[in-house]
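Field: COMPLEX_INPUT
Field: COMPONENT_COUNT = four
Field: RESIDUE_TOTAL = 440
Field: MODE = joint
Values follow.
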Amino acid sequence: MKEETRSQRIRSASAERRARQKAELRRVILDAATTLFEEHGYENFSLRQVAESIGYSATTIYLHFEDKDDLLLHVAFEGFRRFGEVMQAAYDGADGPLDRLRATGRAYLEFGLAHPVHYRLMFMQRGELLDRETPEGYESIIDAFAILTRSLSEGLEAGVIRSPQGVDVESLGALVWSHVHGLVALAISMPKVGRDTARQLIEPHLDILLAGLGRGAGAS
Amino acid sequence: MKEETRSQRIRSASAERRARQKAELRRVILDAATTLFEEHGYENFSLRQVAESIGYSATTIYLHFEDKDDLLLHVAFEGFRRFGEVMQAAYDGADGPLDRLRATGRAYLEFGLAHPVHYRLMFMQRGELLDRETPEGYESIIDAFAILTRSLSEGLEAGVIRSPQGVDVESLGALVWSHVHGLVALAISMPKVGRDTARQLIEPHLDILLAGLGRGAGAS
DNA sequence: CATTTTACTTATTGGTGTTAAGTTTGTCAA
DNA sequence: TTGACAAACTTAACACCAATAAGTAAAATG
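Field: COMPLEX_OUTPUT
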């Protein structure tokens, strides 16, 4: 009995340890991938490099991730997690819906400018990756988007912003999102626009957006 | 003398023919590349495929283009040319600065939705390609952008739009550009947004933009 | 102690861009 | 007309890449 119990304990502890080690290696791979991805960018990112940097053969990665896209998806999740934190901080640091929209807008731009490689992966390069499965990683995306829609809902409720006719809150979120996304996307993609121009334009940009939302759009 | 002249004529005609044939092959390569690029997208586009599709070996391409990026650059130029035509048509089909901005905005969206692969290459994927050299292909880009700034200048002159403080016409162009670019970019990159949402949002989007420009932006 | 499972590696396949080294074909002067 | 030369094009090769299959050594299990 006693022996039986002990061996059982050992067995389960051993299984636990192996699971932990497996999860650890997965983390090591993901961290190395994230670093190398940011360093070399999407185009020059390879599984072989990741494997070499952590002292494993390339095929080992396939024991922890389905394929390259799956690994990239989780690199993107890492980005979404950080992104969510930044947005939440911006939200918390401001008062009232309008200021919150403004603050999150600024934070959004700065995140994009500070992490262009990640930003591209998350929002520009492989959007279809996000349709793969729906694991726990999606929470961060939903959270980040929820911060935006929360500000909008608060603004609608308080009456300080008005949605154009026939546009629900979710679409309104997409509208606001697209506004600042355009600026970020151009800044990190088109050298002619660039970071300085984006920083110069963000305030007028937000002015226009908030003014447009404030008055409601009846034209046309 | 007569023989001398004839041989000279033959010689120059021959050289001309060779130059023409060379240019023709270059065109054939470029057309095949453009087609295959649109079919397979950036990621699955290869020189070997292009070569195979026109019955040449892959290395022949290097006799007419510096490298893959150079070929892609000229594929992008093809896109810019078409894009410029579409924009010009939209401009010509409308009267007055405001309607022209609106018309070009709509046309811009529809171009992006109709040619997402090209749009990505031109405005999202490899903007640094445009910094390579400055051949004749740039005219189309400049032209397309000029259509936008022309409408803006006309609007400023007529007093129907006002630029935010400290924003010159060129930056104002970038601002307007970024507005509609954001919508297009999200539509073709993020499945959650999608074409339908973009088409639904474009009018409110333009309303907000034009309303914001119309009143001037004094708020901070 | 034997068997099976786990973690990992090596080998291989079929693809990529790019360069170097041929080969054929047309041009041109003697 | 012929021999040198250049242009157009191909084959071979290199160094990568993602991905799969087959193999190996150690650990876990009964």
